[in-house]
Amino acid sequence: MSSLAADLGAAARIGADERGGVSRFAWTQELAQANDWLMERLAELGLEVELDPAGNVLGRWQAGEGTAVLIGSHLDTVPRGGRYDGALGVLAALDVVRRLKADGVEPRRPLWVVSFNDEEGARFQTGMLGSRAFCGDCDLEDWSSRGVPEAMAEAGFAFEQLPEARRLHEVGAYLELHIEQGPVLERAGVDLGVVTAITGMLGFRARFLGEANHAGTTPMELRHDALAGAARAVLALREEARSRGDMTANVGVMGVEPGGFNVVPGATEFTIDVRSPTADGFARLEPFVREALERIAAEEELGLELRETHRKEPVALDPGLQELLEEAAGEEGASTLRLPSGAGHDAMVLAHHVPAAMLFVPSRGGLSHTPDEFTAAEYCELGARVLARVVRRLVE
Ligand SMILES: [Zn+2]
Questions:
Q1: 261 alpha carbon – ligand 1 mean position (Å)
Q2: What 8-state DSSP symbol labels residue 167?
Q3: CA contacts within 13 A on the Cβ side of 63
Q4: What are the residue boundaries of the structural domains of the chain, listed by start?
């Protein structure tokens, strides 16, 4: 078994349940145990190891001069997640250092391995807390309101020291290997994905207001059925997303009031998640959602309340690094496809500040955030080898 496969197996046992799920959340024993395990591996390779004030694990190969090349991902998971999301990127980074050391590489600039804390934000919906603190993008007020200070104190950290995790100025580039978490590579029969951009995300909470009334005695043409309006909105979003191709749309939560089988729905409240990886596509999301819902409300004679809940602009990844990844993949005899990432990653936080890139390996059946998540060992190895080639180009 290769070192990378062995490491993946070892990490998957930390925070594992009997049914194959892995749960490691920020500021918990399970993640602390995984971090300790990682820090031992980093120390074995002779790196300077630290757990920073935001709970990020750093392994620094302080060679040469200038800014560091940073490689890694995250060891935290969603509830009952799989063994590859995040962990693969961290362990591949470890593997890259192992390969470079074995090859006698003497870097001209520092090479750092990172495991960012709380990428998933599973406990407090504070996604990418670690990479944001690392980049100086702390939102202390929001994090404080979610119970982070108490959890940090219990784990031996100090909330007020979070801003001290900022190390961005010492970093010159960021590279992350990750599973695709979607079906595109597998369906295309392609080995590796070179990520072009990380999708922009926009969220709303919408509410249609109709009139609750007797479901048997109210004539059909006189009803103000809030759920019929919401159903139309769901389909309008789907049609737009299907016809545009650069957009996804999802209604994932819906409540119907008052909620009786014999009562015309008086109100519906639902979430809307729309995403686009391009600046143009992203700019068209909000006007589309507003116009569609206003039109449907008018036609169905419903009241409408629409409130934005979150907004993250799309971010393009570095074109030069994308080319280097493609070249390196070619040298390994691997086929590549350029594709945007529909999920958020630490790379999107870093990419706002430094040249950043992501390499995807295929996810079997497109599955992720489940114990069934799987990527064949040969693809994990291939991803690590391609990453190692690019890192050598950057540090030698
Ligand atoms: Zn991830």
A1: 41
A2: -
A3: 19
A4: 3-198+315-395, 200-312
**Model confidence pLDDT, tens digit, residues 335-352:** 999 999 999 999 999 999
Distance 327 CA to ligand 1 centre (A): 25
Calculate how far, in angstroms, residue 232's C-alpha sits from the geometric centre of ligand 1. Answer: 34
Please report how many Cα atoms fall inside a 13 Å half-sphere around the Cα of residue 13, on the Cβ side.
6
- Is residue 341 within 8 Å of 276, Cβ to Cβ? no
Best CATH choice for the domain 200-312 from the list 3.40.50.300, 3.30.70.980, 3.30.70.360, 3.30.365.10: 3.30.70.360
Ligand 1 centroid, distance to 195 Cα (angstroms):
14
pLDDT, tens digit, 9 for 90 and up, residues 284-294: 999 999 999 99
Contact in structure between 131 and 171 (CB atoms under 8 Å): no
- 259: CA distance to ligand 1 center in Å? 37
Q: In CATH terms, is domain 3-198+315-395 a member of 3.90.180.10?
A: no
| Cα 182 to ligand 1 centre (Å) | 12
Cα(117) to ligand 1 centroid in Å equals 11
